[in-house]
């Protein structure tokens, strides 16, 4: 009889973080729980030497570097950890992929406050009719710029992290600021 | 930074068979596949101890999602007990320590070849479909670079032409399985060779579906509550297989997708394709208490 495999702590964290990310992205507007607060578990679950990463938060840099990911300029990065957004430069510089390869569009991870701030109404795949969420501490004009930049299927996919909460917003989601 | 922080403890094998970098790559691609429903995302497709074309794509997705608390069900053409399904189920359980089940209602993760169970899937369930050929344009455009350009341009005219030619030649659409379907109004996908009977189950479903082709190295997904519309002409409505009136001659279940069993005298009998649903029907007839989930079809009709 072979021994029953037991996941290591790192494997358990990555698996749980990915479960949260996948559920968050397939059900935009639903808040999922990461195994630990902050972006660290996301970095651990997704990044390795094949990734090009732009990281604006110096505190996250050591975690990113430990994965072996290549540190890249914003337009060349496939994963962008912007920390708390001060302005919209990051959104303006993101790689959106191409119509041939929409998967080249970047994944943007931003820190925000979930549960307070402006009210948003979301529609699109993953949402039965509409869902309303409140997302605070994003710069003025963020959602307008997102709408202008995304040319579906080109675009970027957004994760909003607040402590150990994560909210996903794929490029297919339409956001209306109420 | 010291050497100790860069190394990991020795393990006899990587949990869930795939190594960590393979899982991370599949994770990244699954997220992109969910973000652009129906669009085929290329991935590396690692070696697994099974020949390509026997469900390696689905297996890799399942291995990435597995953890010891995920209950897994594997079906092959509706049956839980075929060799392919049984060996994949045993492999998944052995490398992940996860419990297995045959009951659709109990499963957290369902890996399937060519069928969607007859009982409705819930929001917390994930369906992984094994895909032999992920490219719906292949019959009309064998060059995959040109096919990719056609997807980029949403140039699906030839798909319509193909359907039109079938109607002109045969009087009806001959496409039996993997019926081309428009996802989220943008990408045409092949829903893996599920019968026409199963395609409407993907439309605005509650569950997440991930379709993965191991040999072809592509992944695509249908998120929950996403429009999946089979390509049809306005005046030629979409038709599912005419199985609504058939009765399973082993279980007595009526109004579900059937396997046709040819008989010596040239006639046919029918058996329900979703084997566990048949088993439950038999158990109920024998007086056992069994729990049935809500089914997509009632009395052989899909309520619209």
Molecular structure report:
The complex is a heterodimer of chains A (178) and B (304). Chain A has helices spanning 9-26, 40-46, 61-66, 89-93, 142-149; strands at residues 31-33, 52-55, 70-71, 79-84, 107-111, 113-123, 131-136, 157-162, 165-169, 174-177. Chain A is an alpha/beta fold and 178 residues long. Chain A has one domain (9-48, 84-177): Rossmann fold, CATH 3.40.50.11310. In chain A, the strands form 2 sheets. Chain A has a 7-stranded mixed β-sheet with strand order 1-9-8-5-4-2-3. In chain A, strands 7-6-10 form a 3-stranded antiparallel β-sheet, with no helix packed on it. The longest helix of chain A is centred in the N-terminal third of the chain and has 18 residues, at 9-26. The mean pLDDT of chain A is 95. Chain B has a 6-stranded mixed β-sheet, covered by helices on one side. A 3-stranded antiparallel β-sheet of chain B has the order 6-5-9. Chain B has helices at 3-6, 20-35, 56-65, 83-96, 144-152, 157-170, 199-202, 275-285, and strands spanning 41-42, 72-76, 109-113, 126-130, 181-183, 187-189, 208-213, 218-222, 228-230, 258-262, 268-272. Chain B starts with a helix and ends in a 19-residue tail after the last helix. Chain B folds into 2 domains: 20-228, 3-Layer(aba) Sandwich (Rossmann fold), CATH 3.40.50; 241-304, no CATH class. The mean pLDDT of chain B is 94. Chain B is globular and about 70 Å long. By secondary structure, chain B is α/β, with parallel strands linked by helices. Classes of the chains: A alpha/beta (178), B alpha/beta (304).
């Amino acid at each position: 009889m072979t021994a029953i495999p037991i996941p290591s702590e790192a494997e358990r964290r990555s698996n749980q973080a990915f479960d949260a990310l996948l559920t968050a992205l397939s059900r935009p507007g639903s808040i999922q729980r990461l195994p630990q607060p902050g972006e660290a578990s996301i970095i651990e679950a997704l990044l390795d030497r094949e990734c090009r990463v732009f990281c604006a938060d110096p505190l996250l840099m050591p975690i990113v570097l430990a994965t072996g990911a290549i540190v890249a300029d914003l337009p060349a990065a496939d994963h962008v950890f912007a920390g708390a957004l001060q302005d919209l430069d990051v959104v303006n510089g993101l790689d959106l992929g191409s119509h041939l390869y929409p998967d080249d569009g970047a994944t943007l991870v931003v820190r925000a406050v979930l549960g307070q701030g402006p009210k948003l109404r979301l529609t699109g795949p993953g949402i039965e009719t509409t869902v309303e969420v409140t997302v605070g501490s994003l710069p003025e004009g963020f959602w307008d710029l997102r709408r202008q930049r995304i040319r579906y299927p080109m675009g970027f996919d957004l994760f909003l992290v607040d402590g150990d909460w994560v909210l996903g917003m794929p490029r297919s989601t339409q956001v209306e600021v109420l | 930074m010291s050497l100790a922080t860069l190394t990991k403890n020795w393990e006899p094998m990587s949990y869930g068979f795939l190594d960590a970098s393979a899982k991370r790559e599949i994770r990244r691609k699954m997220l992109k596949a969910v973000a652009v429903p129906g669009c085929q995302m290329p991935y590396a497709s690692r070696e697994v101890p099974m020949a390509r074309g026997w469900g390696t794509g689905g297996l890799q997705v399942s291995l990435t999602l597995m953890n010891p608390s995920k209950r897994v069900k594997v079906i092959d053409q509706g049956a839980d007990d075929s060799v392919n399904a049984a060996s994949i189920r045993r492999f998944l359980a052995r490398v992940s320590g996860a419990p297995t089940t045959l009951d659709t209602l109990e499963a957290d993760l369902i890996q399937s070849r060519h069928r969607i169970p007859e009982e409705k899937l819930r929001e917390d369930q994930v369906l992984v479909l094994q895909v032999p050929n992920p490219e719906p344009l292949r019959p009309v455009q064998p060059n995959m670079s040109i096919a990719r350009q056609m997807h980029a341009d949403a140039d699906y005219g030839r798909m319509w032409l193909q359907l039109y030619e079938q109607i002109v030649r045969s009087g009806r659409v001959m496409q039996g399985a993997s019926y081309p379907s428009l996802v989220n109004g943008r990408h045409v996908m092949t829903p893996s060779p599920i019968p026409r009977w199963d395609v409407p189950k993907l439309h605005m479903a509650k569950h997440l579906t991930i379709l993965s082709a191991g040999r072809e190295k592509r992944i695509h997904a249908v998120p929950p509550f996403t429009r999946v519309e089979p390509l049809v002409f306005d005046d030629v409505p979409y038709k599912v297989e005419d199985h609504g009136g058939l009765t399973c001659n082993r279980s007595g279940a009526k109004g579900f997708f059937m396997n046709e069993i040819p008989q010596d005298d040239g006639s046919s009998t029918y058996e329900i394709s979703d084997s566990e649903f048949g088993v439950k029907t038999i158990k109920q007839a024998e007086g056992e208490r069994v729990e049935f989930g809500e089914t997509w079809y009632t009395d052989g009709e899909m309520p619209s």
